[in-house]
Amino acid sequence: MSELGSSGHGVGSESPDVTRPPTLSASSDAVLVVGISRYSQEALAEAYRRHAGAVFALARRLLVDATLAEEVVQEVFLRLWNQPDKFDPDRGSLRSFLLSQCHGRSVDLLRSETSRRSREERDARRTAESGYDLEHEVVDLLLADQVQGALAGLSEMERTAISLAYFGGHTYREVAELLDQPEGTVKSRIRSGLKRLRSELVTAGVGGWTGE
Amino acid sequence: MSDARHEDIEALLGVYALHSVDEAERRLVHDHLDDCLRCAQEVLGYQEVAALLGQSGGDAPTGLWERIAGELEEAPPPLRLGVMPMAAAAERRERRGSSRVALAAMGIAAAVVIGFMGSVVVQQDARIQGLESARPDVPITATSVAALSSADETMTVDAVLLSNGTGYLLAEDLPVLTQQETYQLWGVTDAGVISLGLLGADPAQGMAFQAGDHVTGLAITQEKAGGVAKSENSAVVSGTFD
Ligand SMILES: [Zn+2]
After folding, report:
1. What is the pTM of this model?
2. Is B202 an interface residue toward A (CB < 8 Å)?
3. S-S: A172 plus which of B15, B35, B154, B189, CB 3.0-4.6 Å?
């Protein structure tokens, strides 16, 4: 952007050095990503301003360690900078895309050998602190009423399995072991739970679905 | 894909969306999603649900943005063009080499894409007419067109590529450079960015260039006179062929 600003002499006579043009803060996420693809750091800064808090909160929830969580946030936004075309605005919101990237990366870290130890420590700490209530994670979330309501509509098994998979970062095979249930059952409960959440939330008008 | 296979994969969609599969399953589903719109849509829906579950307030740690911004400056990125929605990109591939009539029929879709991109909307016909008046000696038959624009949208350059590989630029927006500098034209191909030649310090209207069918987009950079083999600079303007 800096090169563009300096080479644009004689074109727009008004100050080219505005840190955030007024149009940018009002731009849709899709327009921001186009700006990012053209190396606008201001566009990336705006996307960061909108979504970094949520991305960090999710990484921290999964990893507990704030330093690791910061690394994930950094990776997620650098990846958006380097590969903006991975985001397809026709197919979901930027927030959901970034959170999904963050979740995938956090889970990779959780599963990697190096952080296995910290995960064990984390689980141990949780067990010590709260007796590791399986529903605790979901229940204490600051969710919109609709999300809370939709969660309440799930069976206990669905809710627990989703919670262990999503917030615990466990594979469904691990979830099956933890719950002492067949793998196939866990797999299908997670899917049916997500499916129900999805239709409830669409009905309630929550979320960024397009074409529904 | 067989029905049985499809059912197996369908059963994995929920756990896949939650990153709750092992690597082999992840790859299996990932590959399937490239070919199966229905499954891809289902996964996207679950990812939106997951995002709502994982969504909570709070601020990012102070100083983190500065670190990210520092990374951006340390590694100046290679030349790159604007993104397009996947569907539009696929459409563009299909349309390559299409006749002017087909191009006009695609006008509405193209205008939507351009509007979405936040670019200055320029009617394709107007663009071609502008070119025709700049180069009345050139018969415009089968074409692809591109609207190149700067990141801040203040400059646009129109380009038309004929089916014979000859292209023309309408570069009146570009500011005149000093004699120590030149504009350089780049073509974007699947294999990377290639130089299509120097445009000089003050590109003339209707300047011609040669580009093969494999060129899907164009970019113009500002370089020192004589040009460079590989640009370290951001594009002054860039765009893809419709
Ligand atoms: Zn499928």
Report:
1. 0.57
2. no
3. B15
